[in-house]
Amino acid sequence: MPIMEPYRIKVVEPIPITTRPYREKAMARAGYNPFNLTAEDVTIDFLSDSGTNALSAEQQAAGMRADETYAGARSFFRFKDVVSELTGYEHMFPVHQGRAAERILFTTLLKPGQVSVSNTHFDTTRANVEMAGCVARDLPCQEAADLDSDAPFKGDIDLEALRGALAGPDDVGVVLMTITNNGGGGQPVSMANLEAVAKLAAEFGVPFFLDAARFAENAWLVNQREPGYRDVSPREIARKAFALADGCVASLKKDGIVHIGGMLAMRDPELAKRCELVLIATEGFRTYGGLSGRDLDMLAQGLLEVTEPTYLRARAEATAYLADQARLGGVDSVRPAGVHALYLNAGRLLPHIPPERFPGHALACELYLAGGIRCAELGSLYLGELDDDGNLLKPAPYELVRMAIPRRVYTQSHLEYVAEVLTGIAKAPEKVPGYRLTEVPKLLRHFNCRLEQASD
Ligand code: F0G
């Protein structure tokens, strides 16, 4: 069955069609780090689904209607109305992107030494917890450890471990549930799990927040996979999820279907007052928070469109289709397929490359060299423990490559092309070389490092 994308194309943007010799030169120039490639080098860009979305005609129109008044702009109130209807939270601040909401929340809510407990903190979320002088603890459920299991909600938190953390000696300052669980294979969190978390957090008097970057995609997977939700609309499911928590941080560059934006929202008026002060000092006045009126109006419209079942169905089907085609071609990914990304199992595809030669990175480089496809490693290069010379001390638990799929940007033909490139690589995986680090920055290694192909 073809995927019926529920939109037609009104504006087109050419994508570069390059040759292998061109890509070899580009990759050498980039120090074999896809983050150093430029847009004109890349044919299919699966580096991130964040801020890479296509706007709808209605969003463009909303952008034209926008009001750029400094304080109290009409655009803010349109944004606020949509967010209130969706989340039910009384206090709500726009911010320029998700990590700004994280910084404001953690520096305001947490005291140094406290612990933030999560199904999995996203990397900026962890960094913001740590920069607030606190500890970020991930407690993913047991099923998450088996990449091949088809358990439907591998994004859940381990409830026993959560109870242990709340009842233990540590001072837990917040429970944060990431929906969907980006750091954990893009897997969804069940409503049953969220309900249990809400109960436990209330029992121990600890605030419960959502990291809601992909709230609509989580709602879709609940609708499809959780008993009792087949007849509940994704919007209603999303509302129920927000209703269980005390507030949320969200990067709206994902399910806001825009290019920039985020929000921080909550019920507690006293906490909101304190957050507002930090917001005004560091992001902008409370009715714009670092965004333009145009951004706010386009977000208000995007937040309505993102829960449309026809849109969510086509997007989820596209990801599942790519997962199936890749598997048929010989490349496994974390099962079951989520919505925003495919996490390829590079460790399994390239067993001849040991972790210290970065098999995930090797597959990411090969996808670019073979087909101009850009994606990011999630393995030992990013998550492993390295010494100052780039020697691997402790490998990551898995060697994965994330193919993150921008919203409404690529068609089924593009996905067929990607599957064909993957299939080609899987025909002679032993030809893919490993990589050695030549420059190892101390901080934010994966963004800035340089590598070379290793012949050993
Ligand atoms: N939380 C989650 C779950 C995320 O995936 C991201 C960003 C953030 C927070 C931070 O939001 O970028 O707006 O500041 N994820 C992007 C990605 C970068 O590619 O997965 P931000």
Q: Could you explain how this protein is built, in words?
A:
- The modification N6-(pyridoxal phosphate)lysine is found at residue 254.
- Belongs to the beta-eliminating lyase family.
- Its cofactor is pyridoxal 5'-phosphate.
- This protein has 456 residues and is α/β, with parallel strands linked by helices.
- The protein has two domains: 20-49 and 308-454, Aspartate Aminotransferase, domain 1 (Alpha-Beta Complex); 57-305, Type I PLP-dependent aspartate aminotransferase-like (Major domain) (Aspartate Aminotransferase, domain 2, 3-Layer(aba) Sandwich), CATH 3.40.640.10.
- 41% of the residues lie in helices and 15% in strands.
- The protein has 17 helices and 16 strands.
- The strands form five sheets. It has a seven-stranded mixed sheet, sandwiched between helices. The protein has a three-stranded antiparallel sheet with strand order 9-14-11.
- A hairpin with a 5-residue loop joins strand 12 and strand 13 (392-394).
- The longest helix has 20 residues, at 309-328.
- The model has no long low-confidence stretch (mean pLDDT 97).
- Bound molecules: ligand F0G.
- Ligand F0G binds at residues 48, 50, 97-99, 122, 124-125, 178, 182, 211, 213, 251, 253, 262, 404.
